[in-house]
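Posting for a labmate who doesn't have an account.
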Amino acid sequence: MSHPLTSSKPADTIGQLDKGIAAVEAQPRRMGYVERLRGFGGDGANLRLLVLIAILLAAFGLVIGEQLFSAASLQSMAYQLPELGILSLAMMVTLLSGGINLSVIATANLCALTMAAILTRFVPGSEGAAWVLIQVAALAAGFAVAALIGLVNGFVIAYLRVSPILATLGTMTLVKGISVGTTRGNVISGFPEPIVFIGNGAVLGIPVALLVFAAAALPLAIMLNRTPLGAAIYMIGSNERATRFSGIQTRRVILKVYLISSLLAAVAAIVMMARFNSANASYGESYLLVTILAAVLGGINPMGGFGKVSGLVLALVMLQIISSAFNLLNFSAFLTLAIWGGILIAVAGTTQLRQRLRGG
């Protein structure tokens, strides 16, 4: 499988998505232009990302030239960003609650394998309404598997009080074991055209996968910023004990958080299997680090309680620009992963240092 971040995304589509999310997260009172930029995403995190993106574009543009902004490079990113973006959303929602979901990749792969098995077993030879219904049933089965995994994670974490990192690590190992054991590590491929179209088709020049990402990001932004459930998630991430004493059913909220995370992983599974026209138990394993990196870089507090979807989107764009430049400069994929790890450490350390300086 190709490296998760290998190119960049069309500027006009980025603008449309960012504007939509920014509108959801806009402050109700009237503010000046500069004040709105500073508050965009909270604590100026998004403004800093926008500045960094501009600097990176200028720097890489000077080193690489027009090749970085070629139509092929931009189009390639537009097709590759959505799967990582949706998985990052799945990671983000758990981080906001003060937890983490290490099983998002394993969940996505098992969902993809479930859907792939049904599609390849029953679609060939079917016609008419049956041909359509089988595909719908396959997708429904994938979401059912995701819901089950999410409920297991949520129950173990919320009701048995197991640490999220230990619970989801166990789930990740269990789910991957099931995936490898049932398929013996083999690839399942050959899906109907409508499924493949989700990962490789375009509507009015916009990749369908990118539209799927937008369809996941915008409702999540609305939920987090405009609903009681979203407010409860932020409160739990800030102080779960105080939230529980305020009368909120924190266990139910945490259960819903991990359910939402797993369902988002199922959406990512559809995009992944559609783009590669295949499913495997080991696809996207390098995504796990990058989903956490994107979330933290986007201003999501790894301890919970703070962060915006718009920040995550900007972080994904920034990482894609860096990755595309590295790819054009012929950097090793392993070296790129090492650099991602270094960036994660630097961002997390800078965030903690800033908080201590403010507290002091």
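Reply:
Got it, the structure tokens are right above this. The chain has 15 helices and four strands.
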